[in-house]
Amino acid sequence: MIDLSLLREKPDVVKGAIRDKGGGDESVVEDILAADHERREVLSTLQKLQARSNEVSRDIGAFMREGRKDEAQGLIAETAELKTQIQEMEERARDVQGQVDSLMLELPNIPHPSVPRGTSAADNRLESEHGSRPSFDFEPKTHWDLAASLEIVDFERGSKVTGAGFPFYVGAGARLQRALIAFFLDLAAAEGGYREIQPPLLVNEASGTGTGQLPDKEDMMYEIGRDGLYLIPTAEVPVTNFLRDEILPEADLPVKFCAYSACFRREAGSYGKHVRGLNRLHQFDKVELVQFVHPDRSYDALESMCADAERAIERLGLPYRRLLMCTGDMGFSQAKKYDLEVWSAGQGQWLEVSSISNLEAFQARRTRTRFRAKSGGKTAFVHTLNGSALALPRTVAAILENYQQADGSVGIPDALQPYFGNTQIG
Question: Taking residues 231-242, what's their average pLDDT?
């Protein structure tokens, strides 16, 4: 969540963020300010009542010691009334604080000044493009046709067993998945300095709220209602909550984790050709990068994390481009976000394989993840960042389509061959 003091001082900036992030009811800003004003008035009244109660208690003690029992008795009656009033004010303070906290969860993060204003993907800014698109002396196939002919991904049996968007990976397809996961984790640990962590695949409501999935994205998550748990949409959720409610020494920053997990997304309303095959799934594998950094260094960390994800694409020899996402296409929690897209030769389009985001203190305020400066004193919120390095489905799609051969086989990128154990599929 954003800083309440920012909302008090610059409500128009917050309203602008609501508009820039794609809508929402701007009246929530006035609702919060009104509730916050009432909260402060209630707390002021409560403090006065508590001060009077302390004063009366002291006077009662003094009167009793001096033998002035009649005067003490009158104050004892006032003490009972003060106790009732204090209890009422404490209950009202809790209620109003709950209103403020609940309403604050509806506010999106404030976009960084460098983020372009826009309403859709058409307004995203192309930052760079790398590599050469492959050329063929034959008509390139799509990955779903290649997967079918090579018998490495079975969409139909996945639909039979679970439903659309839950494919089986078979034979070389399963081995390719395993090879990519190991390759991405090793690369992140050895060259990026990340510490590997294997997270749980289920989280509670507090974890979903901590990272901003709740209450914003309930329709995108699979919920296990009986147990009050959610299947994770990304390893970002459990890994970012790993340090929830903790205070880190400044010397420990940055903290960098890499994590493999299966991811589960309902993707409600996702239909059409652009989501065919591996382009969009309900269950998929991904290696995630998460960092907890000093606020003064989070934008340097964003560029570094982007380079970490790009390194994985480059080692696979895939053409790719970097986009800076506009305000309307970047999501509720991000302050700044890059997307990395690889070229899909069979489909003739770019496929997103990574999003790298700086959340600033938005998640840390929700998770209460802080650090204490070396010089001591007050604590401050860390900044959190996350990014995919990489998501597997579209990476697999790009490998199949870009490395396909005229005879229907598919080459394996050189860097991946030691993990895969062969030079080609088919």
Answer: 98
Residue 138: is it exposed, middle or buried by C-beta count within 10 angstroms (0-12/13-18/19+)?
exposed
Catalytic, out of 236, 261, 280, 322:
280
280 as an active site residue: the answer is yes
**What whole-number percentage of the chain has pLDDT above 70?**
98
Residue 345, CA distances (Å) to 55, 144, 284, 403 in order: 80, 13, 22, 9
Catalytic residue, from 352, 368, 372, 409: name it: 352
Q: Is 321 a catalytic residue?
A: no
- Whether 411 and 423 have beta carbons less than 8 Å apart is answered as yes
Contact 157, 168 (CB under 8 A): yes
Per annotation, catalytic residue among 265, 322, 365, 370: 265
Q: Which residues contact 63 (CB under 8 A, 6 or more apart)?
A: 69, 71, 72, 75
Q: Is the pTM here over 0.90, yes or no?
A: yes
CA 417 from centroid of its chain's CA atoms: 32
394 is catalytic: yes
Centroid of chain to Cα 206: 13
Is residue 181 classed exposed, middle or buried when 0-12, 13-18 and 19+ CB atoms within 10 A define those classes?
Answer: middle
The runs of H, that is alpha helices, within 124-241 are: 143-150, 155-161, 172-192, 205-211, 236-240
| Coil, helix or strand at residue 425 | strand
Q: Do the beta carbons of residue 356 and residue 306 sit within 8 Å?
A: yes
